[in-house]
Design brief:
Elements (H helix, E strand, L loop, with lengths): L4 H7 L14 H12 L10 E6 L2 H21 L16 E7 L16 H29 L3 E2 L8 H11 L6 E9 L13 H4 L13 H17 L11 H5 L3 H5 L23 H7 L2
């Protein structure tokens, strides 16, 4: 049955359990990748390349690269829920989305030294947004075909990218910003947590009552994150242990106004965890 665009968006999942032993035709994979080709990009420069891995031997070699990447997460990024990548061996294909940084020359360039930082940073944002649009389009193309996928960013890490470049033959100075495993899900998955629309939609200007405070970010990172990332519930209201997990922060994560006072806060350093909690303790554990 034909799906509406809204249904396709809602059916997109990040799935890490695939049924083994399946295959799809290249015409299906071409339609999926063509969705990425039609993504918007800065200056219409189309700063992306797509490598589709659909042969078992090469797929297994790519899987080995990501098994090593996952182990590095375990060893050097404590607390992040590093998922073992063995499931990649059950995919029908793996799409690698490369970013070609040469095309940033097409983006706005400064006319004086005083504006160099301004446009260098802006051009990096244009570049990454262009790649993100292509990756998202591919994921929607996967969902439209009745398949499922995930979005792996680990290929963009320097060590992993070099291994992929050596294996797949692309220049090392390009980078695998997105890796998209495609397959048939081993189990139906419900929708993951989404913020209430009324909390993130602002009409005709930013509403300070919808500002999420530093303390709420701290609570999510330190305590709530492991559950919000992987539970198959779109709404916190459906959690049987909602009171236990959210506690005093219930309204902040379920209502339209997480910040009833309307008071904004100055910029703060969030480059590392700021408070202790279950997730933070795991991250900091040796």
């Amino acid at each position: 049955m034909e799906q509406s665009f809204q249904q396709v968006i809602r059916n997109r999942r990040s799935v890490r359990k695939f049924e083994p032993g399946n295959a799809v035709g290249r015409e299906v994979l071409e339609r999926i990748v063509d969705c990425g080709r039609w993504a918007p990009s800065g200056a219409n420069a189309q700063c992306f390349e797509f490598i589709v891995v659909d042969t078992p031997d090469l797929r297994n070699q790519v899987t080995e690269v990501f098994l090593r990447q996952a182990q590095r997460l375990v060893d050097h990024a404590k607390g992040f829920p590093a998922v073992k990548k063995t499931y990649l061996a059950n995919t029908v294909a793996i799409v690698i989305v490369l970013g070609d940084p040469r095309w940033k020359v097409c983006f706005p360039q400064p006319t004086t030294d005083g504006w160099e930082a301004e446009y260098r940073d802006n051009n990096e944002a244009i570049f990454l947004c262009s790649l993100g649009a292509a990756i998202q389009n591919i994921q929607l193309g996967v969902a439209a075909e009745g398949l499922t996928s995930a979005w792996l960013s680990g290929g963009g890490e320097d060590i992993t990218n070099k291994e992929l470049a050596d294996l797949l033959g692309y220049p090392e100075w390009m980078k695998a910003y997105g890796t998209i495993p495609i397959g048939i899900p081993a189990a139906t998955q419900d929708r993951r947590y989404r913020r209430p629309l009324a909390q993130c939609l602002h009409w005709n200007g930013y509403n300070p009552a919808q500002f999420r405070t530093h303390e709420q970010v701290d609570f999510f990172e330190s305590t709530l994150r492991p559950f919000a990332m992987y539970r198959d519930r779109e709404n916190f209201q459906d959690w049987e242990d909602r009171t236990e997990k959210l506690g005093e922060w219930d309204a902040a994560f379920t209502s339209a106004t997480p910040n009833p006072s309307g008071k904004l806060q100055p910029e703060a350093d969030f480059s590392a965890p700021r408070t202790l909690g279950q997730a933070t303790k795991r991250r900091q554990k040796d």
